[in-house]
């Protein structure tokens, strides 16, 4: 059964690159991309039209044809910039699968991805020569091409390649719909990065979702060729791909920054110079922007944007609330590379429920929420059936051919269809007593405290939980102040109030990482939990040992409770309970 898309039918265009080329014909002289460049020692934004981007990509494809036309899969490692975008289009014009490799990958990760995808070529800029050559040398039948520095101005002066019409096959058919166009990979937050194959069908549907959601939830929020989308996410991840190419469906423009994650200065310069109307980004960038805006009491630039959509990971509740309070139309989007974008919050600026997610009527038959193994009936697990048109190729992990997302949501009110993201099933750990703890909500509350940059709650197979805290550099020193420690403890207390009793973190189980210590994160900003446990195993072991054996230094007489009078025993128990709960004795007695 063919799915009826809201605007562009994949049965009409067959391939993503064909859709792009047809949009080029419609919007040829409209600006497609604005990119950061250095001119006369200063950073500024230059622009390329749809026709210019297509011209550059066509010439690159012809130039690379002798090396790539026989390949099935080509790996690509480069920084997030305009050259990356043009190269992606060029390789797709060659009808070769583009394997997007994050430049942050370790060599071992790249080896695994090249092997799993059977890539025959890996292309890289000089900056990533070492990783590319090292990985290719460990992969059978894989060649390396190191790309020379690119000169866009010179390339723009070159005429269209004389053999473009014969070298590039533009005859697209129904068979192209299910062909793999792009392979992205997972962030590797729980294991080694895994490749995820995206067909032309998937890509054509992917880029239409946000447009449909805007029309459905905020019809007065115009989205057309007058719009410019600021892409503050990496092109080598799905969220950056969406922000970069979604505008082509309406003739809109995209803005690319030079670094990932985008810096505050780059975002400010981009908004000032290019006047974007929307921004697609991730929690890491938004958190940096919020700290800057709060410190300088300057929210005006972000308020210019009519829509800011956030994906790639959960934005902390306190940060989302604060952005909303300052009249920034921040909206949450949920999706994964395996399933595309499935849920979004209401895009209407008057709706302040920035993190309440809903599906769309056109996708309603293709997702379902199943009850979780919990006493709370509002907590559910998202499942995608096998016939979902937006499902990536080969990701089925259920006997019926469907896909378990392993993502958990809480329905706001029964049968409302409104959900709030809770976390991942594999984030939940089982404690020594068999109780389950979801650390994500606790971590979100704790990192809402401004002195804290990141934290990780730990407790798998342990009698109680603990938290490792990474302070922001300006608050970190060899001798922590009482004020900083009090703020950290208050943040933990706030998390404890929202956590089940078996999950509370005792004051003795708070550990501030020493200078230089960092919580390992994926590209998307999610915690690499196993890496945390591995890297800080000694600190964690010492933390539990000290807490569970805290009376080991008592004298023999003190350890013998028979030698204590009843009043002293009672006093000791009250004092111990107060210390563990971080309360005064008077508060405990109330």
> What is the end-to-end distance?
65 Å
CATH superfamily of the domain at 16-27 and 51-202: ANL, N-terminal domain
What is the CATH architecture term of the domain at 16-27 and 51-202? 3-Layer(aba) Sandwich
Describe the biggest sheet? 8 strands, mixed
Please identify the structural class as seen in this structure: alpha/beta
The mean pLDDT is 90
Kindly state the percentage of residues in helix.
25-40%
**Gyration radius over CA:** 26 Å
Beta-strand residue fraction: 15-25%
Q: How many helix segments?
A: 22
Give the C-level CATH assignment of the domain at 16-27 and 51-202: Alpha Beta
Query: What is the third-level CATH name, the topology of the domain at 16-27 and 51-202?
Result: Rossmann fold
Arrangement of strands in the largest sheet: 2-1-10-9-11-12-13-14
Shape: globular
Give the number of DSSP strands: 23
Low-pLDDT windows of residues: 555-562
